[in-house]
Amino acid sequence: MIGDLVRLTFKNFHRRRLRSLLTVAGIAVGTLLVTMVSFLGSAGQSMVGKELTSMGLNGISISSGTEGGLKEDTLHTVRSMKLISEAMPLSIHFTTADIGRFDGDVMACGIDAGADQVISLSCLYGRMLSKGDISGCSAVCVVDEALATDAYGRKNIVGKTLYLQSGSREEKFTVVGVSKAGSSVLQNVTGYMPTMVYFPYTTLRDLTGVTTFDQIAVRVNADTTNEDARIDIKKMLERQDLSGTEFVLEDLAAQRDKLNGLMDIVRVVLQVISAISLLVAGMSIMTIMLVSVHERTVEIGIKKAIGATGGRIMLEFMAEALMLTLAGSIAGSAVAVVACVIGGAVTGMEIGVSLSTILAVTAFSLVLGIVFGVYPAKKAAALPPAEALRGG
Question: Which of 13, 201, 260, 288 allows an S-S link to 20, with CB 3.0 to 4.6 Å?
Answer without folding.
Answer: 13
